[in-house]
């Protein structure tokens, strides 16, 4: 598998928190907090290439010739439900961020994505879009969501997840070779039910306590 466009964050804080996420004994409250914290830590790296502009700022002492973010910044788009868990961490860090939503679920029998809701910020075409979903398993959901964003004319899309399976990475690379994938861990494989192994189970159920 080509590693081009795939970035795995091996920062110790991220790795530590992902290990806690995987633990089947981690409570819903803790799980939700960890997902948000990891998203915030990842946001720091995912936004590393944001365009900057030179500015002069008057400090109490003198004028500082310094830099600030240029342009309209970012829109984040969580894939419902589980992507919602990553929103707070990103919003806390990124100035002027707007939030769109794409509702998709994986049909339990066919594992094909079914779309049920989409709402994006009006100025989304002027923003960089970071698509959020904790799990990249077969890649069907992320591929469909990226396809939808592209149909809306969005050109600058990054996909950020917590755990990626090789099968999902391969699917995105085949369907959308231009998309950069950012993850906190790359796991071994999918099982017969298309769950990630070792993974962390069903992310949506663990975030919302619905299993
Ligand atoms: C999970 C996950 C992804 C999808 C990944 O969502 O949050 O959206 O599965 O699987 P894929 O890569 O094989 O498409 P799920 O369908 O369980 O919906 P939920 O978030 O509403 O629980
Ligand atoms: N969705 C999840 O929440 N977990 C998996 O392992 C696969 C898909």
Layout of secondary structure:
Elements: E1 6-8, H1 12-22, H2 28-46, E2 52-58, E3 63-69, E4 74-80, H3 87-93, E5 98-99, E6 101-106, E7 113-119, E8 128-132, E9 135-136, H4 140-151, E10 157-160, E11 163-164, H5 166-175, E12 180-183, E13 185-186, E14 189-190, E15 196-197, H6 203-208
Parallel strand pairs: 1-12, 4-5, 4-6, 4-8, 8-10, 9-11, 10-12, 11-13
Antiparallel strand pairs: 2-3, 6-7, 14-15
Helix pairs in contact: 1-2, 2-3
Bound molecules: 1-O-pyrophosphono-5-O-phosphono-alpha-D-ribofuranose (PRP) and uracil.
What does this structure look like?
With 211 residues, the protein is α/β, with parallel strands linked by helices. It is built from six helices and 15 strands. α1 runs antiparallel to α2 and α2 packs across α3. The chain is globular and about 65 Å long. The model has no long low-confidence stretch (mean pLDDT 95). 1-O-pyrophosphono-5-O-phosphono-alpha-D-ribofuranose binds next to β4, β6, β9, α4 and α6.
For the structure shown, list the relevant keywords.
about 210 residues; alpha/beta; 8-stranded mixed β-sheet; 3-stranded parallel β-sheet; about 30% helix; globular; binds 1-O-pyrophosphono-5-O-phosphono-alpha-D-ribofuranose; binds uracil
What's the total helix number?
6
Tell me the helix content: 25-40%
Structural class from helices and strands? alpha/beta
Question: Could you say which small molecules are bound to this protein?
Answer: 1-O-pyrophosphono-5-O-phosphono-alpha-D-ribofuranose, uracil
Low-confidence stretches: none
